[in-house]
Amino acid sequence: MAENVDPDQAKRVLQTALDAWKGGLTSADLEAQQPSIIMNEADWTNGNRLLDYKMNDAGKLDGRQVRWVVQIKLQDKNGKVTDRKATYIIDTVPRVVIVRDSFAS
Q1: What's the DSSP call for residue 44?
Q2: What is the band of 1 on the pLDDT scale with cuts at 50, 70, 90?
Q3: Quick one: average pLDDT of 55-73?
């Protein structure tokens, strides 16, 4: 059985991924870095820019993964800016994978 995710490591990899998105990198760029981080984020894949983000102070262990709520400010291809809450599920074993929980409100 895999070990639980370390919340401090989860915070670091989520910040790294969000900073990459905000900095104009692609998810493929992020995956190619060492250590490799796979982030499945539809807004990023669809070409929306991350203008800013604010992570909640602490993630929450959920099973063996960490869930982290983040306020994100996005700009779509037409220039429209929206603020929304996103919940990310972070796993670090055996690979670093971050997915957005599309069912969280």
Answers
A1: H
A2: low
A3: 93
User: pTM for this one?
Assistant: 0.93
Share of the chain above pLDDT 90, in %: 78
Q: Can you tell me which residue has the tokens 């670091």?
A: 12
- For 1, the 3-state DSSP assignment is coil
Query: Which residues make Cβ contacts (< 8 Å) with residue 2, sequence separation at least 6?
Result: 64, 93, 94
**All residues at 6 or more sequence positions from 88 whose CB lies less than 8 Å from its CB, including other chains:** 14, 67, 68, 70, 98, 99, 100, 101
Q: Say how far apart CA 7 and CA 60 lie, in whole Å.
A: 8
Distance of CA 11 to the CA centre of its chain: 10
37: left (phi over 0), alpha (psi -120 to 50) or beta: beta
